[in-house]
Amino acid sequence: MMGTHQSLLRHLVFIACAALLAACSHIGRQVPTVFQGKFSPSGKYYAYIYQSVFIFSYQRTGGRSVSNGSLTYYLQVVDSSTGQKLLAKPLKPREFDCTYPQLGAVSEAHVLIACSNSKGQAQAPFVFSIATQQVTLTGKAIAERNPALGGVHGTDFYRSREQLSAFIMEASDGRKYQLNPDSGTAQPVTGDFERLDIDDPLRGELPKSLREAGDGRRYIEVAARGQSRRSTEDFLRPKYLMLGHDTEDHFSPATQVDGGFLVLSNTVKDSGQHKLLSLVDAATLATRWSTPLPQQRGDWANGFDNEQFVQQGNQLLVANSSQLLRMDLLTGQITRNVDLVD
Asked: For this UniProt entry, which residues form the secretion signal (predicted)?
């Protein structure tokens, strides 16, 4: 675990350096970019951190460029039922001795932020209340209440399948603790936990009666011998959505949606910016609908493969590197499109 933490520190330092050097051909404030985001378990809220770079000076001599500037992180929360951003003035984590923030976990009432100081040293997390839109417990307060907790990294957060909104983290002593976000006290817990930072909704697998085939672009066909039925469409780098939380260790079947399953695919082979979401009928393999997902720009590292999904009945919430979308699962229509960073 120490190697992971050291790698994370180097990663955070790289973030700061890369952000200061990115898009430095212009003096002044650069286009803000999303750094990290997470849904609450029900999808009611989407909390995310974005970063803004202000370039003070820029000089280019030959093939070498030098820039100076500042990097500021902000926390924002969206009510996904209305699309409204709740914080009129986004929170600056650095005001709470949090130079490098990471989203630890999001519940239906609180956001837990993991922090590192200006030296890259992990600190105790702080608690943000969604209802009051304020930090109710600072990292200093949590550290004073829980001396054994130590510094908590962004990779130290876990989910309990029995209590999806519980804040569970691994402390520096290697034990799992559950944090009470109201009192700030943490108690040791045991159980079957899964790490939040490796939660992947695109890990779904095709039903066992189906399989992928094809060279380059892939199509779906019936696995049984003697049958030639195949999908009416083929897909570039298809992924199958497993909505909800995994309950099996060896097989995660794609979620059934009205007798079909959802396929996320690229439209060009050298970029993940432009993607299609399709609903394929599990019996006929016909595509019922296929919808392009808007994604205006990449995240802090100019990456695009960051999609997250939450199903709410016949509605689907989608978050990517720039947008928060609400879709009708029966028609594929996008009914709401929120720009995460204006």
From this structure: 1-18
Q: Residue 96: phi, psi to the nearest 5?
A: -120, 35
Chain segment 261-318, per-residue pLDDT in tens: 999 999 999 999 999 999 999 999 999 999 999 999 999 888 999 999 999 999 999 9
* Residue 202 CA neighbour count, 13 Å, CB half: 13
DSSP category for residue 253: B
Measure the CA–CA gap between 337 and 91, rounded to whole angstroms.
Answer: 23
Specify which residues 122 forms β-bridges with. 116
8 A C-beta contact, residue 177 and residue 189:
yes
Three-class DSSP category at 307:
coil
In three state form, how does the secondary structure of 93-147 look?
Answer: HHHHCCCEEEEEEECCCEEEEEEECCCCCECCCEEEECCCCEEEECHHHHHHHCC
Q: Please give the structure tokens belonging to residue 75.
A: 């926390």
